[in-house]
Design a protein that fits this description.
The protein has five helices and five strands, in the order βαβαβαβαβα. It has helices at about 15-30, 40-50, 65-75, 90-95, 110-120; strands at about 10, 30-35, 55, 80-85, 105. A five-stranded parallel beta sheet has the order 2-1-3-4-5, with helices on both faces. The chain is globular and about 40 Å long.
């Protein structure tokens, strides 16, 4: 962490328990955090705050996670690094969103693995 300047991560998650665990893991990994519980809020915050990273839950109450994912996929550099978390069946995720590869973390996931993966991709 050395420089004292933390990278900002937008966490898009509507489950307070998952959000709490992510908040702890990301802060301990040295990240600043911005939070959204809907896709609409996430889209607004990506534009306003320009986070370096985004963690996106695919099952949001307003059904706009796909719109957020579309934006993240087409962002021209230097768009944010992004990871996806979901309780959705991995096969369903592939059918609906394509192969997300190492960017996909099925719930339940290890929050430390997720934070470390994001930190590595932001280097």
């Amino acid at each position: 962490m050395g420089s004292g300047v933390s990278k900002t991560v937008l966490v898009v998650e509507d489950d307070p328990a998952v959000l709490g665990v992510l908040r702890i893991a990301l802060r301990r990994a040295g990240f600043g955090i911005v939070e959204a519980s809907t896709g609409a809020d996430a889209l607004r915050l990506i534009g306003e705050r320009s986070p370096e990273g985004v963690i996106l839950d695919l099952m949001l109450p307003d059904g706009q996670a796909g719109n957020v994912l579309d934006l993240l996929r087409v962002e021209v550099p230097p768009g944010p690094e992004w990871l996806v978390v979901s309780a959705m069946d991995p096969d369903e995720v592939r059918r609906k969103y394509g192969d997300l590869g190492r960017r996909f973390f099925p719930k339940p996931f290890d929050p430390w693995d997720l934070a470390n993966s994001l930190r590595r991709s932001l280097r």
